[in-house]
């Protein structure tokens, strides 16, 4: 029926479900009234980026004055930020798997309690590319771990649980088609490697610790490229696994800020990096606008 699934029988025994890190709850807020119309959820690491995305969407959809103030729905906490404009919800998730996993547990419950249906969720962010020009946008085909396998591992009750990291392939193709229609920047579909660390976990040579050589790094990244990896970030595996479990149609859209085969540090100007960072917003904004127009036309 298009509902967002939760797989936890214990939730039925709760009088109130407190979404602690959002400063929201079923006993304190009317979640269906607040969020029942949500059809698109966009998540990204930075609170600033997600507010910027809300302002961008407001302008693109001509729903409100883009110069309006958009209140942070999660203002009661400093963990995450959340903004809403029409059917579009924008939420920050912080950096790394633990941070996005906590956010997604509460976001999935929020969408479930709000009785949302047919929700599409897209992570927009930045990444390091492998063999791609900086500024290339990567739509993730499959999230793989640091050994290039498509899985997300989590230890639960002392046991390792392995979950699938497949994303919605038709959504990925739709996003690629949108990029072709926009014709503003290069977009590719490829595998995304999700790591537990920004430095050693991504074979950087510039961390506080490094026990390998430049050749070791190049050999590893070349193997990643041969395995179909186009970019590296730190959230996609948990995102893909949790969205699949909950029945959410999901995609990951990240721009590459540098080619890791050529270096480790971000030396481009702030202005150039900012313009790169806007590309996922432009692509996903166009996709949302196209979907809403199709729905309005009765397609």
Automatic annotation (TrEMBL):
One Gene Ontology cellular component annotation held by this UniProt entry: cytosol
- Sorted alphabetically, which keywords does the UniProt record give? Glycosyltransferase, Transferase
Which PANTHER family does the protein's record reference? URIDINE PHOSPHORYLASE, URIDINE PHOSPHORYLASE 1
Question: What highest taxon heads this organism's lineage?
Answer: Eukaryota
Q: A single Gene Ontology molecular function, please?
A: uridine phosphorylase activity
Q: Which Pfam families match?
A: PNP_UDP_1
Where is phosphate annotated to bind? 79, 123-126
Matches recorded under Gene3D superfamilies: Nucleoside phosphorylase domain
Q: Which residues bind substrate?
A: 202, 204
* Gene source species: Seriola lalandi dorsalis
Family membership: Belongs to the PNP/UDP phosphorylase family.
What pathway does this protein act in? Pyrimidine metabolism; UMP biosynthesis via salvage pathway; uracil from uridine (phosphorylase route): step 1/1
Q: What is its EC number?
A: 2.4.2.3
Function (record text): Catalyzes the reversible phosphorylytic cleavage of uridine to uracil and ribose-1-phosphate which can then be utilized as carbon and energy sources or in the rescue of pyrimidine bases for nucleotide synthesis. Shows broad substrate specificity and can also accept deoxyuridine and other analogous compounds.
UniProt-recorded name of the protein: Uridine phosphorylase
Provide the GO biological process annotations: nucleotide catabolic process; UMP salvage; uridine catabolic process
- SUPFAM superfamilies hit by this protein: Purine and uridine phosphorylases
First-level EC class: transferase
Give me the segments passing through the membrane: none
State the reactions this protein catalyses. uridine + phosphate = alpha-D-ribose 1-phosphate + uracil
Question: Which InterPro entries does the UniProt record give?
Answer: Nucleoside_phosphorylase_CS, Nucleoside_phosphorylase_d, Nucleoside_phosphorylase_sf, Uridine_phosphorylase_euk
Q: Where is the Nucleoside phosphorylase domain?
A: 39-263
């Amino acid at each position: 029926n298009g509902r967002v699934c939760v797989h936890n029988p214990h939730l039925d025994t709760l009088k109130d479900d407190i979404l602690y890190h959002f400063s929201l709850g079923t006993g304190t807020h009317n979640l269906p009234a607040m969020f029942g119309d949500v059809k698109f959820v966009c998540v990204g690491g930075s609170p600033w980026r997600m507010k910027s995305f809300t302002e961008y969407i407001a302008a693109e959809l001509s729903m409100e004055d883009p110069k309006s103030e958009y209140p942070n729905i999660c203002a009661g906490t400093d963990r995450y930020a959340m903004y809403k404009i029409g059917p579009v919800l924008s939420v920050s998730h912080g950096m790394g798997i633990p941070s996005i996993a906590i956010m997604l547990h509460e976001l999935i419950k929020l969408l479930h309690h709000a009785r949302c249906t047919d929700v599409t969720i897209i992570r927009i962010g930045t990444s390091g590319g492998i063999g791609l020009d900086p500024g290339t946008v990567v739509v993730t085909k499959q999230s793989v771990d640091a050994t290039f396998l498509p899985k997300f591992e989590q230890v639960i009750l002392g046991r390792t649980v392995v979950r699938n990291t497949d994303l919605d392939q038709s959504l990925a193709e739709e996003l690629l088609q949108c990029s072709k229609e926009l014709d503003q920047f290069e977009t590719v579909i490829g595998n995304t490697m999700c790591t537990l660390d920004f430095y050693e976990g991504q074979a950087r040579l510039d961390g506080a610790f490094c026990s390998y050589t430049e050749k070791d790094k190049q050999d590893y990244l070349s193997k990643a490229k041969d395995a179909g990896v186009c970019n590296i970030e730190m959230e996609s595996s948990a995102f893909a696994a949790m969205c699949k479990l909950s029945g959410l149609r999901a995609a990951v859209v990240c721009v590459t800020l540098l080619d890791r085969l050529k270096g480790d540090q971000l030396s481009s100007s702030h202005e150039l990096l900012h313009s790169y960072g806007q590309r996922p917003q432009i692509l996903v904004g166009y996709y949302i606008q196209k979907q809403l127009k199709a729905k309005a036309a009765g397609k």
